[in-house]
Design brief:
Layout: H1 11-24, H2 37-44, H3 48-60, E1 64-67, E2 71-74, E3 79-81, H4 97-102, E4 104-114, H5 117-123, E5 130-140, E6 143-153, H6 154-157, H7 172-180, E7 186-194, H8 198-204, E8 212-220, E9 226-235, E10 239-241
Parallel strand pairs: 3-10
Antiparallel strand pairs: 1-2, 4-5, 5-6, 6-9, 7-8, 8-9
């Protein structure tokens, strides 16, 4: 492994390109520890600070993860979200078994909290209105890949199973439909990119300057009244969003009226 001192590309970027390529072809497997920074500095013939800049860059990209006191490892979890929130409902209003097999959802807490502005706006209420929130984490292998929360009106959730601090044996929307007595009929997904909060960065094990993707999911009943507002936050460099859909076939134009004369 070498760098070209005369190249226009900075040395730490040259090293990053080589490390990416070696990880891509499997020289270092997911979860495997890389050589120490001094060892890599010696391999490339550069200062330790240069290798540290490389590691910092690849951490921001979500390729590497540093464990204090242990070393730098290949981060093997990359979540492919090919259905966005539609995956929670399924083609026949059921939970996708493949998602359950690949990812483990863990209930992180249930309680009443002041709704953040985006949630309050979605429900059409004042900021800081008290609501019931069910918080969760989604894990794959040894990494947390999603921080999420589902919000409900207190008037809808009080006295129902939604207040219980326990996981359900079925999708949350099915529990909510039965508890609230209204059917989920439509939903909107809004995705944005932003910097993580301090708590999100700690939970997702990313640097504070690593961008995250944030989903705001609003589920409505048949009268277009919100039932649930859900939030999900993912590490941006580790998450790909893929949407597959059919393209409508062209509609044949009707034959002109034989009685018309076209000039």
């Amino acid at each position: 492994m070498t760098i070209n001192p005369g190249a226009a590309e900075f040395p730490h970027r040259q090293i990053a390109a080589q490390l990416r390529e070696r990880i891509r072809r499997g020289d270092w497997a997911p979860g495997e520890r890389l050589p120490s920074i001094p060892a890599m500095a010696e391999m490339f013939g550069v200062a330790k600070q240069t290798v540290q800049r490389t590691v910092d860059q690849l951490r921001v990209e979500g390729i590497l993860i540093t464990k204090p006191g242990s070393g730098t490892y290949v981060r093997g979890t990359r979540r492919r979200l090919n259905r966005l929130s539609r995956g929670r409902y399924g083609a026949h209003r059921g939970y996708h078994a493949d998602l359950a097999a690949r990812y483990r959802q863990q209930l992180a807490g249930v309680g009443r909290e002041a709704a953040p502005p985006e949630v309050a706006d979605a429900f059409g209420v004042r900021d800081s209105t008290e609501m019931l929130v069910r918080r969760h984490l989604v894990r794959a292998d040894d990494a947390t890949v999603e921080v999420g929360a589902s919000w409900f009106r207190v008037t809808d959730a009080t006295g129902t199973s939604l207040e219980r601090a326990e996981a359900f044996g079925r999708p949350l929307y099915q529990e909510a439909e039965e508890a609230i007595g209204r059917r989920y009929a439509s939903a909107t997904d809004t995705i944005s990119a932003r910097q993580p909060s301090r708590e999100e960065a700690e939970i997702l094990q990313i640097r504070p300057d690593t961008p995250v993707l944030h989903l705001l999911h609003v589920a409505f009943d048949e009268t277009r009244k919100p039932i649930e507002v859900a939030q999900a936050t993912w590490p941006g460099p580790m998450t790909t969003l893929t949407e597959e859909y059919r393209i409508p076939a062209p509609v044949p134009e009707p034959d002109p009226d034989p009685g018309l004369t076209l000039a």
